[in-house]
Specification:
Blueprint lengths: L25 H67 L24 E8 L4 E11 L4 H8 L4 E2 L3 E2 L8 E6 L11 H6 L3 H4 L15 E8 L3 E10 L5 E12 L6 E5 L15 H5 L8 E12 L14 E8 L11 H11 L5 E5 L7 E5 L1 H7 L1 H8 L3 H5 L1 E4 L4 H13 L2 H14 L12 H24 L3 H12 L7 H11 L2 H13 L1 H4 L3 H4 L3 H11 L19
């Protein structure tokens, strides 16, 4: 250690020191020296006591940390005990375990058939199936390899999630290895000995073959009971849609005489590794990575086996039941075609009595042959335009100059079908015809992915504005919900302005919460400085913990109960 040079200390720095006096005798000086030595002895003793007290304080601090760990473990064991007690009570109530057969004297009486009824016996093997979706986002993807190297591993893992509510062992994690390397996401010895619960809790997810290699894997907590699984992996693209990676796989995990984990993944059994066959470098520039983040989803269906072969002579999982139902007519009734018929009136222009002309920007005008009775019934704004003595009513042509043709087309399709899938279909088709659709995984670039995402948001903004203009509340709320799912640092300010203008209260609330959580990144953007003063006031109120009033003086909003 290096210390800076200091001036020598004088006697005046210490308690009891005094200026030397020329009038003191030798005896008086000796007496003063003895007093200082006695003081030094006292201070030395007090310093040793203080050092001992520091050691005791550090020991108390260590014991408090150890107590925290023990209390956490006790809480975990308590949760396990509670789960097992619930399992015991379910067995006592004959809701689980080795249930009596239909022929048993303990079985409930069979319902008696009614005259003219048809008896049917059903054996169900899906009554115990539970489904759970889990979404996991990995951000800072370009730094992942370097960070994992510092951690001494080749993969990262998600937090623990549960699937079956009645089985404490029905717990899972997702594991991602950017190079398709080892899936050992932690050291078993470190987990067992760690006093940190965030490390200790992963000890049950390490009982599998250490030679397994893969890019993405689902790991079930170790136990010895059997279970039945169906799982499928998805990856989110630049438009925010989840695309499947591989087919759904259904497996029967057998019971064992020792605890072990189940591990499943799209490329565990293939020689080539990588997401959709891409190298990690290709992946970073693909449509699957947005803002240096990648998002996975796994769908898990599980039917837990609560009995072990060593405890019962025979396992039966089918649940039998007898029902009595009236004979249904043998005449096959065709499905409804009302929605398709109404839409064909618009797309084919049959029996139309009004022309909707979209004139927007420099693009060529687009016309739609529509029907006043349908539009008037579905929108009060259209009804007013057709009922009053206006130019539109006289010429049977309604010219729209402030709505892009794709958004107007989506609005009309919704008015004829009341189907959001039709809206999405129109937006996809119009986006593809504009030449800006996303490329496939192996050939897409980061710029194309970003452009597709921006186009999707722009389309939804236009649909929201059109729905607001024509008073179509249901479509407005749908577009509002879609935009809430696409919030980002780049779009938060523009979406807040949009929500403020069109009275989209849920979108406004989500924008304010997102901007507050990501304030450091949002306030640096140029768009933040251009926010309307009213929107800035709402943002400041939200940051201060005051929720802005949903109804502002002098501002008209559509009623939700229209």
């Amino acid at each position: 250690w290096w210390l800076p040079r200091q001036a020598p200390l004088s006697r005046n720095h210490f308690p009891g020191a005094m200026d030397a006096g020329d009038g003191l005798t030798a005896e008086q000086l000796r007496a003063r020296i003895e007093e200082q030595r006695a003081l030094q002895a006292t201070l030395t003793a007090q310093g040793e006591d203080a050092l001992r007290e520091i050691g005791e304080a550090e020991e108390r601090q260590r014991l408090r940390r150890q107590l925290d760990v023990e209390e956490t473990r006790s809480s975990h064991l308590g949760a396990v005990l509670y789960s097992r007690q619930r399992r015991r009570r379910s067995i006592d109530r004959d809701e689980a375990g080795a249930l009596p057969s239909e022929e048993s004297t303990f079985a409930k009486p069979k319902p008696q058939p009614t005259p003219g009824a048809l008896a049917k016996t059903t054996t169900s093997y899906a009554s115990n199936v539970v489904k759970r979706d889990f979404v996991w986002e990995v951000s800072g993807l370009s730094w992942l390899e370097q960070q994992l190297a510092q951690e001494g591993r080749e993969c990262t893992s998600s937090d623990i999630f549960h699937v079956h509510p009645n089985d404490s062992d029905s717990k899972y994690v997702l594991v991602y290895s950017p190079r398709g390397a080892s899936l050992l996401h932690a050291d078993a010895n470190v987990c067992d000995e760690s006093s940190d619960w965030d490390i200790y809790k992963f000890r049950d997810f390490l009982f599998f073959d250490e030679n397994l290699r893969g890019t993405l894997a689902l790991v079930r907590g170790a136990d010895s009971f059997g279970t039945n699984l169906c799982y499928r992996f998805f990856v989110r693209d630049a438009r925010g849609d989840f695309r499947p990676w591989g087919e759904a796989r259904r497996v029967a995990v057998p019971a064992r005489d020792h605890v072990a984990c189940f591990v499943g993944g799209p490329d565990l059994e293939t020689e080539a590794k990588g997401l959709f066959g891409l190298t990690f470098e290709e992946l970073l520039g693909s449509e699957w990575v947005v803002d240096d983040s990648i998002t996975f989803k796994v769908e898990v269906e599980e039917s837990v086996v609560f009995s072990h072969p060593s405890a019962v002579p025979q396992i039966r999982l089918g649940k039998a039941d007898v029902t009595f139902e009236q004979k249904t007519p043998s005449v096959e009734v065709p499905p409804s075609t009302l929605q398709a018929d109404l839409l064909s009136l618009l797309t084919e222009g049959r029996h139309s009595d009004v022309t909707i002309e979209a004139v927007y920007g420099e693009a060529a005008p687009v016309t739609f042959s529509a029907h006043t009775n349908i539009l008037s019934q579905r929108s009060d704004v259209f009804a007013a335009a057709f009922s009053h003595e206006m130019r539109e009513s006289a010429t049977r042509t309604l010219t729209v100059t402030d709505v892009p043709p794709p958004a107007l087309k989506a609005l009309l399709h919704f008015l004829y079908t009341d189907d959001f899938d039709e809206v999405q279909k129109v937006l996809r088709e119009e986006g593809s015809s504009g030449g800006s659709s996303s490329s496939s995984g192996a050939a897409a670039s980061g710029g194309a992915s970003s452009g597709a995402a921006e186009q999707s948001i722009a389309q939804l903004q236009a649909v929201l504005a059109a729905a607001h203009k024509y008073g179509v509340l249901r479509l407005l709320r749908w577009a509002e919900g879609q935009l809430c799912d696409k919030l980002s640092c780049e779009m938060a300010c523009s979406l807040l302005s949009l929500a403020h203008v069109y009275g989209a209260t849920e979108l406004e609330r989500n924008c304010l919460a997102f901007m507050k959580a990501n304030m450091a990144n949002v306030v640096k953007r140029a768009e933040f400085a251009t926010l309307p003063p009213e929107a800035l006031v709402k943002f400041n109120m939200h940051c201060a913990g005051i929720e802005p009033s949903e109804e502002e003086p002098g501002r008209k909003r559509k009623r939700d109960d229209e």
